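Example 3.2
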Amino acid sequence: MKKISERKRIVVKVGTSTLTHKTGMLNIRRVEQLVKTLADLQNAGHEVILVSSGAIGLGMGKLGLREKPKDTPGKQACAAVGQCELMYLYDNLFSEYSITVAQMLLTKYILLEDRRKNVENAMERIVSQGVIPIINENDTVAIDELELEVGENDSLAAIVAKIAKADLLIIMSDIDGLYDKDPHKYDEAELIPVVNEITDEIRGLAGGAGTKLGTGGMITKINAVEIAYEAGIDVVLMNGQHPKALYDLFEDKQVGTIFAGSK
């Protein structure tokens, strides 16, 4: 398998749990560390594409809500308010390191095969100009995804990685990686460092529930890995609570779980 340090184009997905506190309010220190680290990786010659959740969570914090609305219009309102916050935040922080960012809001309809080429062309031009695309699902108008609770960004990140012809997909979550049993229940649970194939056993290890602010869970990570595998893209699942661990990853140290999809 090609060394992580040798990967040029990388897609990094960060979840709501990485960006916010349990209150829904922004985790300022963590987001600043994330941006600084990604900017440094970009300066080192990597091409960074960021898929960022957090719009609904940030919108909840801005609107003073403690729990995600159960009705679709309420979720749409949170997404609309939060997306402004999200991009304002990223634009300000990345600009401190002289890096320009671009917003791309996508839905499953835009990503259909006959329309996907337009997204691919736009992304390629943005990346080629040294700009970091910041991608999110367009939760303000993606009604089907909001109502069915399938609008999680793990699968979106994998699709983006395929479209961008990325060398690596990194999913930053609230867990260190894939364990041989639930680490929340079993102290003796051990991290699985490398997964070479998604088997029924691996699927069985994936739990279903995510945090109350997010929509994902381990099973959505496995689904995303399978999408990435179709394009021969390796995936790293790692804890987003320590963004500086990205440095260790790109120094070829063991971080999280590596799902080896490339042949």
